[in-house]
Specification:
Number of strands: 5
Shape: globular
Radius of gyration: 16 Å
Order of helices and strands: HHHHEHEHEHHEE
Largest sheet: 5 strands, mixed
Distance between the termini: 5 Å
Mean pLDDT: 78
Low-confidence stretches: 158-203
Strand content: 5-15%
Structural class: alpha/beta
Number of helices: 8
Helix content: 40-55%
Length: about 200
């Protein structure tokens, strides 16, 4: 379950314990974090907590559940829509990097762009991406409508869908999700919705 908001902010040992439990939940679904990905995920969680007071990236109650809730649910995208080499993904309204940055941290070979209208959130994501040396990663400080108005957007992304709030309790069938897209001209088959609550996000 989720942690009591009155508890102290999560620190290194607690974050590691939460990640241990998450990894156990991931294994039956063949979603593995190698040692490097695990280390990157811990750095991301610590940086998020450190930046949160200044930028209000998450509500204070959600900070306690950054691994148990947000990282867990983000990794569930791989269960719903495993990435293919030919695909380029976009996370619209990525916020603090859920799920897009988490997916890139887990799979640095993933081609994904992160879009958010808040420059302060984009600055946080860029800072973490540089620190973790994630390689090519486009962070776009704009609204979805602005991106859609660009002449090259349709040829790059076959479909765009908003990222759902992971605090939602709607069923997977009702939830929109981040969009997995294949490069191609307009008329390319619709992208697969990837929003769902993975079973391990409820421990």
């Amino acid at each position: 379950g989720e942690r009591d908001p009155a508890a102290p902010l999560p620190r290194g040992g607690q974050l590691e314990d939460d990640l241990d439990r998450l990894e156990l939940g991931l294994r039956p679904f063949s979603i593995d974090l190698d040692l490097e990905a695990r280390g990157r995920m811990l750095v991301f969680a610590r940086e998020l907590i450190a930046w949160n007071d200044r930028l209000n990236l998450l509500s204070r109650s959600d900070v306690y559940n950054v691994v148990r809730k947000h990282i867990a649910a983000s990794l569930g995208v791989f269960l719903c829509a495993p990435p293919a080499r030919s695909e380029r993904w976009i996370d619209v309204g990525t916020g603090a990097g859920f799920p897009g940055l988490v997916l890139k941290i887990a799979r640095t070979d993933l081609a994904i762009d992160l879009l958010d209208s808040s420059r302060k959130r984009c600055l946080f994501i860029e800072s973490v991406a540089r620190q973790l040396r994630l390689g090519p990663l486009s962070v776009l400080p704009m609204r979805a409508g602005t991106l859609l108005g660009r002449g090259d957007a349709a040829g790059t992304y076959a479909g765009i869908a908003p990222t759902p709030p992971f605090s939602s309790r709607r069923s997977p069938k009702e939830m929109p999700g981040p969009t997995s897209t294949s490069p191609g001209p307009p008329g390319t088959p619709a992208a697969r919705p990837a929003g769902c609550w993975p079973p391990w996000s409820r421990y």
